[in-house]
Amino acid sequence: MKKLIIILTGIVLAAAVIATGTYGLTQKNIDIYERAAAIDSSVTGFEDFAVTDYPVAFYDGEYDYVLTWENGSYNIDRRVPVISFAAATAYPIDGHYEVLAPTVEKMSSLLGIMSMGEAEYGIEEQVATIWHEAFHCRQLTYYYDNITGICSEDVDESIISEYADTNIQAVELFTEQSELLEKAVKCEDIDTLRGYMIKYKQLDMQRKALLSKDIKELEEYYTIVEGTACYVEACVYRAELPDRFDEEYIDNIGVYRKGSSKYYRSGMAQCMILDKLSAEWKNEFDFSEPLTDIIYRELEI
Question: Quick one: the chain helix, strand, coil %, rounded to 5?
Fold first, then answer.
């Protein structure tokens, strides 16, 4: 999901449903939806959230195929696509939010082109992506004001690459912080974890002193909103492919990435650290405060 308040404010489209049936949607995509729907909410720990709470629309390049869960099974409707390009996102449709995603064939092809044929994107990745975007639907449905209040609607993502990623000292500090987060996620001893987070907090104060208010707020937006969605995605991926989980999600937390994606991983890591500290943190989390504030409070630092 791109920056919420740039792409979603004031956009509400009515779905033009053409007919009902499977049409050109392949069985593989139907199987993916059924697989995603079968995953229990306990996998993510957000007990009041399931992917079946929201319609899922697969875009095949010509039509959207909208799968809606009702009474233990699903219906499929075909419609004119609400966005005519390949993007996985949460989107407002006629007063509610839906998951929009390219079909797995289209997504795999697109990522293969972008990575010169090296991307691995299949059933498990698509299932995890659907859960990620469905979690954004949940955020937007129940916590819209808290999310949109994190940063100014006039802030553009380009300030990350233009300023945060070009500030050598800020990059060095963020890299060191990310390495500490990776160690904390892998750590089983709470006292050792506390030491990592004390150092993290010190570095965070130093780094934030180098950045503008707009950058800090936008970073917090991505960390909270995308970080929690990335955490949900990771939980689902771990349930689907446990043998590849560490390689795909844990072992590269400490790697610096340009752009906004680094905040997805840092927010995900903070969620995983909270799992070690409090079994109840998700019950009351409403996206109104930084994840680190909850961590510091739990560790009394």
Answer: 55, 10, 30
With beta carbons less than 8 A apart as the criterion, state whether 29 and 121 touch: no
Q: Directed axis angle between helix 104-114 and helix 27-38, to 10°?
A: 100
Q: Is the pLDDT of residue 198 over 70?
A: yes
Q: What is the DSSP string of 35-88?
A: HHHHS-GGGTS-TT--GGGS-EEEE-SS-EEEEEEETTEEEEEEE--SSSS---
- State the Cα torsion 250-256-219-185 to the nearest 10°: 20
Nearest to 277 by CA among 172, 165, 197: 197
Average pLDDT over residues 185-194: 97
Instruction: Give the rounded distance of the alpha carbon of 229 from its chain centre.
Output: 3
Helices 190-208/168-186 angle, 10° precision? 160
* All residues at 6 or more sequence positions from 198 whose CB lies less than 8 Å from its CB, including other chains: 301
Q: What is the C-alpha separation between 224 and 65, in angstroms, rounded? A: 30
DSSP 102: E
CA dist 60 and 86 (Å) reads 9
What are phi and psi for residue 239, nearest 5 degrees?
Answer: -70, -30
- pLDDT per position as a tens digit, 91-124: 999 999 999 999 999 888 777 665 545 557 889 9
| 56-59 and 96-102 strand pairing | parallel
